[in-house]
Amino acid sequence: MNQPEKGSILLVEDEENLHEALKLNLELEGYGVSSAFDGAAALKAIANEYFDLLILDIMLPEMDGLAVTESIRISNNEIPILILSAKNTSADRVSGLKKGQMIISQNPLIWRSFYYAYTNS
Amino acid sequence: MATDTRKLKLRRTTIVYWSLLVYILAALLWWLISLEKQNQRIRAEQLQLLELQAPQLNPIEKEKRVAVIESLARRNSTKYISEGITFLIVILIGAVGVFRAVRRQLRAQQQQQQFMMAVTHELKTPIAVTRLNLETMQRYKLEPEKQEKLIRIALDETSRLNFLTNNILVSSQLENKGFAGEKEELDFSLLVTDCIKDMGNRFPGRIIDSVIEPEIDLLGDALLLQILLNNLLENAIKYSPATSIITVQLRKVGKQVVLEVADQGEGIADAEKKKIFERFYRIGKEATRTTKGTGLGLYLCERIASHHQATLGVSDNSPKGSVFHVNFAP
Fold first, then answer.
1. B81 reaches A (C-beta below 8 A)
2. Tell me: the pLDDT tens digits for B291-311?
3. B123, part of any domain
4. What is the mean pLDDT for each group of 10 consecutive residues in chain A (121 residues)?
5. Which of B184, B221, B302, B303 has the fewest CB within 10 Å, making it most exposed?
6. Cα(A82)–Cα(A98) distance, integer angstroms
7. How many Å apart are CA A79 and CA A31, to the nearest integer?
8. Does B140 touch chain A (CB under 8 A)?
């Protein structure tokens, strides 16, 4: 893998095809991307390694994205978290905000604004 | 939050319902008591009047009149009580009917909402992947292998989308009682073999073992039968470990054609075995469930089976997992 220029990201998404597409895009944008396919693997990776950002799918097998966020925040880890939600319901957004994260849509167009917001922050 | 609002609404409706019912029953009781009191008062006044007229009457006549007054009062009491009981029964039957109808309605509404959420997720994911892949190719000049891969993934996702929309469309078609479909004599063995081959291409990592008796002909709708088998195979793949084997058997038992799809997943609890064929039903609670799906697949399989005069059932696989079997009547 190339040396990440912009930062390292942990991508947690269990849909293989979506995972690959997101990973490729982030890598092409110059981020270092590590992969996890479920909540437990994500928590393990975060405990062992430093990441600049966590991108988390809300619907994961066994432990969902909100539960993962809660565990991370309980252990006092302040890593920025972006939640992916295809459902994009207000309920998801509110519980996401309560747990200290941002929710974005799976709509690829919104990814552009994410790149913009993240690279300019 | 939507659930909270729904719960609040449900609680309010329940409170209003019970208050109304209690009010109606109390009113009924109150009417019964006041009518009975009135009845007793009339009886007492009539007896009093009789006492006043008594000097002009002979004792036999007086006794006769007392008996008439008493019997009228008794008849009125019986009338009020029996009418009260009839009203009580009618009110209770109505209340139970309303209660059950409202619950059924709420449950249907809830399932519909869950279905919409599930469908949204299921439909949006392949669209998001395809779009993301196309945009990636538009934005970057990629190496041919990478480009090839993105195209393959996009094609995969469009066939998934196709499968899902087929499910939704066919299930709404089958809802229509007049739906006749187009049945023709077809080589079912070939159809099953082709479906397994397609599924093998879609999930290259999975092992699907098959024992297909050749040249089994069936009168059926090829598209519907494909949907039936694809749903059973998809479920077997979805609900069993990636390294486990899925077994498909097609054979003739006497004049019956029997199709079986067996997996080595967690299996299905006996209590759930009937419910899984209900429309929108999904095992477990929506909030804690982590597998994806619409709750349409098995409902659709059941509808397609009955459209072909076949029965669809599920039993336990040994040592673990489930076997779905479709028995086509001769």
1. no
2. 566 777 888 888 889 888 899
3. no
4. 71 86 86 91 92 85 81 83 66 54 48 47 39
5. B184
6. 13
7. 16
8. yes
Bond before B55 cis per omega within 30 degrees: no
Question: Residue B94: is its pLDDT beyond 90?
Answer: yes
Mean pLDDT within B223-251: 90
For chain B, the distance separating the N- and C-terminal CA atoms, rounded to the nearest angstrom, is 52
Q: Are B101 and B21 within one domain?
A: yes
Tell me the residue length of chain B.
330
Strand segments, DSSP code E, in chain A are 8-12, 32-36, 53-57, 81-85, 102-105
| Domain limits, chain A | 8-119
Chain A residues contacting B, CB < 8 Å?
15, 17-18, 20-22, 24-25, 28, 59-64, 86-87, 89-91, 94-95, 106-108, 111
Does the CB of B121 have a partner CB in chain A at under 8 Å? yes
Question: Would you identify the CATH topology of the domain A8-119?
Answer: Rossmann fold (3.40.50)
Q: Give the pLDDT of residue B208.
A: 92
Q: For the beta carbon of residue B128, count every other beta carbon within 10 angstroms.
A: 23
For the record, the structure tokens of B124 come out as: 């949006």
ipTM of the complex: 0.72
Chain A interface includes B129 (CB < 8 A): yes
Q: Which two tokens stand for residue B196?
A: 């397994």
Q: What pLDDT band is residue B9 in, cutting at 50, 70 and 90?
A: confident
pTM: 0.62
